[in-house]
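Field: COMPLEX_INPUT
Field: COMPONENT_COUNT = two
Field: RESIDUE_TOTAL = 597
Field: MODE = joint
Values follow.
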Amino acid sequence: MDFLKRFGKRLGFMVLTMIAMSFLIFFLVEIMPGDVAQTVLGQSATEESVAALRARMGLDDPFHLRYLRWAGGFIRGDLGESLYMRGVQINTIFWRKVGHSIILALTALLFYVPLSLFFGVLAGVKAGKVTDSIISFFGLATMALPEFVSGIILITIFSVRLKLLPITSIIPIGENLWQNLNILFLPALSITFVMFGYVSRMQRSSMITVMKADYIRAAILKGMPRNYVIFRHALKNALLPTITIIGMNMGWLFGGLIVVETLFGFPGLGSLTMSAIKTRDIPLIEACVLFITFIFVLSTFITDMMYAYLNPRIRFKRGDV
Amino acid sequence: MKNWFLQFKQNPRGIVGLAVLLLWIFAALAGPAFLTHTYTGMDMESQLTGPGVNGHLLGTDALGRDVFSRIIYGSRSILTIALMTSLLSSIAGIIIGFTAGYFGGTVDTVFLRIMDILMAIPPLVLSMVVLGILGNSTIFGLTIIVSLAYTPATARVARGALLTCKGNEYVDAARIRGESHLYIMFIEILPNTIGPVIVEITARFAYSIMMIASLGFLGVGLQPPTPDWGMMVIENKSLILEAPWTVLYPSLAIASLVIAVSLFSDFISKVMIHEN
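Field: COMPLEX_OUTPUT
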């Protein structure tokens, strides 16, 4: 019952956030300098044709009306028409790029979750020893690097020196991502660099906390094999905070994709957002940013629910949540 | 003070971080005086020359500009903006977070909800969109926008710090004495939260460097001809096979600075936690 209550509350907040964000994004784009119709038609357009286009696009309507029309379109799944690529429905290009980004994000997840869990547990168990110092230093360093810097370092090693992987992640015309899976490696590794630091640090500190708990010490003192205690008893409890961090960072990861995709030229949501900003393609900017926000809010929501579900102290708690 | 020296001795990483940071600050302040090339000076005789050739320590880029000089000049803007951003966002965060936490009740609830909503958009995405929309970024514009993007986070930290002190006797004493709210917040409480505040400022400094480098890389940072580390990376990226130094050295400059600042900020947070 409490779980349902929490679910409803968070869901409500999620909807509220999305409404507020959509308003903010719409407002931001609204204050963009320059006249949209003029931009579309070019500097040489006559005043009459600009006025005609303004009327046709409904640009003369008051702010709230345009907002409602735009937001209404979103709810119906209509993302509008691109300004830069005249006549192209955003829906026709948007979802394929989102799909690419999701595949990239999942590939990165596949790399960094096992790696950072393993090294985080190792550092936590060996806290204070040399192994721990090395892992912690590496984590701190990779976490600090912007994605494009680790990307350049990876390109230098794997593409320039070893000539193993492509420098750019462009899909040749007429082919799809599945025929070019090798382009995923370096972008995913660049993301792994940043995420490794966060996740392994979290895993390390929660491992240290759990290892100090009475029931773990009791198990070890009772003579149970140390590794058994670590993997069967401690890890189970030490994973919970890490899961939260991984979930919370999913949305953040989507923001980081903008940098990674720009570096590698990977055809995903990030490079689409970037090119939308460069070409001042207002409807496309709105669609991209709102979607990134949505992923962010959704991942926070799912993480929160998962945390509540996995943590019996919350799941079975009575009274107010 | 003595305690600090002791802490430093136990944390070689902190020393290394501070040393590299100071080196970069020195390079930014005094470096240009020693340079033989300017950052815009084009040497048409030697485009894309390798490191060490014709007096170009780290080589030249496609326009024949000296990479080393551009890196040294570039350190000025990134350090300035990052420093101002970390200070500004922390000050704004303290004012907002303290007000919310101090008065509590409805003010606090409304504050928390607004911050939660604003934090639903990644700071990098927010800054990128705003800068991209406004166009032509300046040092001032970058500082303001990145600070704004960070304020929800700093305000939450400040609020948390205030709440740990709010219940103390000296706060009640001041209130009974009839001190004003402002006096209590900033003269009584602020000095007692200085630990977490300093930790936040140094951590923010590291994040800001990351952010500003990334914004430059995305092309919404400082505009040419001002040398910007992030921009140097993206504008030369296609030359990575032909002239790797044009891309690699700016990247390493960013790497050395952010890692140094992170090590230093990690050290600061350890010292502050230790003291409490």
